Structure formats: C-alpha cells, structure tokens
C-alpha cells in the first residue's frame, strides 16, 4: 500500500511555478529584445549598387552640356523684291560654289522697271548733250560780241591816231577829234563789259551742266538698282559651301526680304552647347573644353556666351583648336565638358545621384568587412560632371554607396550580400 508524501507534492508544485515564471520571463525578454532590434535589415545585392572609394588628390571641376556642331559661316539668301519662284535648280545637301544659281525668280514688275530705268538714262544723256550744245552756242555768241567790240575799238583807235596828226596841222576841227576820243573810251568800256559777260557765262555753263549731269547720275543710280534687282532674280549661293535649306517651293509668291535658302561652309564648324542656366554663371570665355563627337574627342575653347536664357539653358559657342574627326558635319549631336577650375589636393568622391553643390546629403558608408552599410551625413562642396568635393563626414579610403537609395529612406543600415 502506497503512503502519501506531502513534501513531494509541494516540491512538484514549486517546480511547476518556477517553470511558469521562467517561461514568462523568457517571453518578456524575447519581446523586449525584439523591440530593441527594430525592423529587420534589408538585404541588397552588391552587384546592383554603385560603390566608390573616397580619394584625396586633384579634382577637375567641369560643366557638362549637350549640343550640336553648327557652321561658323552661315549665309542666308533673301528675296530683294516681290517675285514668284519659277524654278529650283539645286536641292539641300548639294555642294555649291559662290556663283552657283540655286533658284530662279520671275517678276514682270522688275523687268518693266529695268526697261524704264534704261530709257530714263538714255533720255538724261540726251538732255546733257543738248544742254552742252546749247550752252556752247551761247558761249560762242558771247565771244563773238567780245571780238566785234575789240575790232571796233581797234579801228577807232587807228582813226584816232590819224585824226590826232590831222588836228595838229589844223586839217580837222578840234571838236571832231574830241568826239572821236569819247567814242573810243565808250568802245573800251564795251570791251570790258563783253569780257565780264563771257566770264560770267562761262561760270554759268558749269553750274547748268552740273544740274543736268546730277539728274543723269540719279538716273544711272536708279538703273544700277533696277539692274541689280533683275540680276537677283537668279539667286546665287554667294559663298562656297553646302546648301542646307531651301525655304520655298516652286510657284510660291515671296515678298521682299523673305528668306529663300541657307548656305553654310561645312569645313569650318563650331560646337554650340546648351549649358544649364544654374551652371552658366561659372562659364567664361577662354575656358578649355573637350567635345565628344561620338566619333572622336576634340579640344576647343569657349569663344562666345549668349547673354539670354532660352528654355532653361544658355548657348555657349566652342571653337575647336584642332582638326575635326571624320564624319563631323552640321547638326551632329555632341557632348561637351567645360573645365571651370582645378581643385588641388581635396577629398573627392564619385557624384551621387541628385546632389547639389554646397549641400548636405545622406549616404550609406560600408563597414570594414563590407557586409553592412550605415547611413551618415556628408557635407559636399563643389561639384563636377562625375565627382564631388567632400568637406565633412568622410575620410580617404571610405567606401560609399552612390546609387539611388530613396527606397531605403526608413532604414539607417543595409545588409549587403
């Protein structure tokens, strides 16, 4: 027969209570630990990340800008008068010389004006000739009157000398002789008057001829204008190059001043870059530039900066300092890198996504093992095309994730695998 042992029952109950309390404490400890751990670290594939190492050394501060190759010498051809496009002789893409006829215009009004101008010049020339003949005839009449006066004076002078001798011998009355002296002085005065008339008329001839010759010159200038307008109906290239654009069609009516065609020299090209307006303030003339034509690199220099902002960018012209690579042609897309400055012995890093100059950014720095990355605050200074200057937060040799990390904004650590 079994005998009940009260001590054994107490010990059993005590062990049960201890186990329950231990289990409760364990569950509480696990809950507290789970709360302290926070959310689980996200795992990220290392191969999908862009990781760079902080370096100390020289850093080139550059501005990157897209653009195109454009001709330096562009010649627009415009209509000088209202006309109709009769025939297009050359189409875009054709190499042309300076005297190549690109298109022909037709204008009955221009041809009529040319004929009228020619007739006006002929009429003005005839008026000049007639006026010259008329004035020469009048000048001869004046000279004839002078010659007659001189002859009459000479005859009277001879008679006066003879009468002076006759009067000395009392052969003629003294009154007659004095009357002849008065007539002689009148003839001498008449000669002086006739000489003045000839001189005055000679000067008048120059003035009257200048007036009709000025009219002739005016008509000749008008003829030159009408002739140029007529010649301009055959539109010539003006320079040797390539016809880039034909802006009209056959049969089209154009007004004076309308652009007809564009010719450019294809052997002299420049790069026209579009620099973002926020970075254009740092660009200055004379800065060195590297232009990538995707068929070779060319060096150049900034030669012009447009003063206006168009669509958020500023046009910057770059003149190449060397020969262009094969295949370079107008409107070819290029990519330029303008060297702004050189920073000596600074901390630098590859340019993270969406970073601005002189700002603070949040980056993930890898630990020594490279298994995890921790978020830190980094102060950046100047930025370039592919690098940024580091002012605070990192040291040489630190490895940093540069990829876009906005999807992990709620995490301060990442696990790399």
- Unreliable spans: 34-38
Instruction: Report the principal-axis shape.
Output: rod-shaped
Q: Strand tally, please?
A: 21
Helix fraction by DSSP (H/I, runs of at least 4) = 25-40%
Whole-angstrom Rg: 53 Å
Mean pLDDT: 84
Neighbour order of strands in the largest sheet: 3-12-15-14-13-16
- SS summary, helix count: 4
The portion of residues forming beta strands comes to 25-35%
Structural class: alpha+beta
CATH topology of the largest domain: Elongation Factor Tu (Ef-tu), domain 3
- How many domains in all? 3
| Major β-sheet profile | 6 strands, antiparallel, barrel
The CATH superfamily name of the largest domain is Efflux pump adaptor protein, beta barrel domain
Order of helices and strands: HEEEEEEEHHEEEEEHEEEEEEEEE
**What is the CA-CA span between the terminal residues?**
69 Å
CATH class of the largest domain: Mainly Beta
Can you offer a commentary on this structure?
With 417 residues, the protein is α+β, with helices and mostly antiparallel strands. The chain has three domains: 46-70 and 268-416, Efflux pump adaptor protein, beta barrel domain (Elongation Factor Tu (Ef-tu), domain 3, Beta Barrel); 81-105 and 233-264, OB fold (Dihydrolipoamide Acetyltransferase, E2P) (Beta Barrel), CATH 2.40.50.100; 109-231. The protein is built from four helices and 21 strands. The protein has helices at residues 6-37, 108-168, 174-231, 277-280; strands at residues 43-44, 51-53, 55-71, 74-78, 83-88, 95-96, 101-106, 234-236, 241-246, 253-254, 259-264, 269-276, 288-292, 297-305, 313-320, 333-350, 359-366, 372-383, 387-392, 399-401, 413-416. The strands form three sheets. It has a six-stranded antiparallel β-barrel with strand order 3-12-15-14-13-16. Strands 4-11-9-6 form a four-stranded antiparallel sheet, with no helix packed on it. Strand 13 (288-292) and strand 14 form a beta hairpin. The chain is rod-shaped and about 210 Å long. The model is unreliable at 34-38 (pLDDT under 50).
């Amino acid at each position: 027969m079994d005998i009940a042992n009260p001590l054994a029952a107490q010990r059993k109950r005590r062990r049960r209570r201890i186990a329950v309390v231990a289990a409760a404490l364990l569950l509480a400890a696990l809950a507290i630990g789970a709360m302290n751990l926070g959310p689980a670290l996200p795992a990220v594939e290392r191969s999908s990340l862009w990781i760079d190492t902080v370096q100390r050394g020289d850093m080139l501060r550059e501005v990157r800008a897209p653009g195109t190759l454009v001709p330096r010498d562009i010649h627009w051809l415009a209509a000088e008068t209202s006309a109709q496009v009769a025939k297009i002789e050359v189409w875009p893409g054709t190499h042309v010389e300076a005297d190549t006829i690109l298109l022909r215009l037709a204008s009955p009004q221009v041809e009529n004006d040319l004929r009228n101008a020619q007739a006006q010049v002929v009429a003005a020339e005839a008026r000049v000739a007639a006026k010259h003949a008329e004035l020469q005839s009048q000048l001869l009449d004046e000279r004839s009157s002078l010659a007659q006066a001189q002859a009459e004076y000479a005859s009277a002078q001879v008679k006066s000398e003879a009468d002076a001798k006759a009067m000395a011998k009392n052969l003629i009355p003294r009154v007659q002789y004095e009357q002849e002296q008065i007539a002689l002085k009148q003839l001498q005065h008449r000669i002086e008057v006739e000489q003045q008339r000839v001189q005055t008329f000679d000067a008048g001839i120059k003035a009257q001829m200048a007036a009709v010759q000025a009219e002739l010159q005016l008509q000749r200038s008008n003829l030159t204008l009408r002739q140029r307008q007529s010649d301009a109906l055959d539109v010539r290239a003006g320079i040797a190059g390539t016809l880039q654009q034909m802006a009209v069609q056959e049969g089209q009516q154009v007004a004076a001043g309308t652009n007809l065609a564009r010719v450019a020299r294809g052997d002299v090209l420049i790069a026209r870059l579009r620099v973002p307006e926020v970075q254009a303030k740092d660009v200055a003339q004379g800065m060195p530039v590297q232009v990538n034509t995707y068929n070779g690199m060319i060096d150049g220099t900034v030669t012009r900066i447009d003063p206006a902002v168009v669509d958020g960018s500023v046009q910057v012209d770059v003149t190449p300092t060397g020969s262009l690579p094969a295949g370079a042609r107008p409107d070819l897309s290029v990519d330029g890198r303008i060297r702004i400055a050189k920073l000596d012995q600074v901390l630098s890093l590859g340019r993270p996504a969406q970073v601005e100059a002189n700002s603070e950014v949040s980056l993930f720095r890898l630990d020594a093992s490279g298994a995890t990355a921790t978020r830190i605050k980094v102060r950046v200074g100047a930025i370039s095309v592919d690098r940024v200057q580091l002012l605070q937060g990192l040291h040489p040799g630190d490895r940093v994730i540069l990829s876009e990390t906005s999807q992990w904004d709620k995490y301060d650590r990442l696990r790399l695998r």
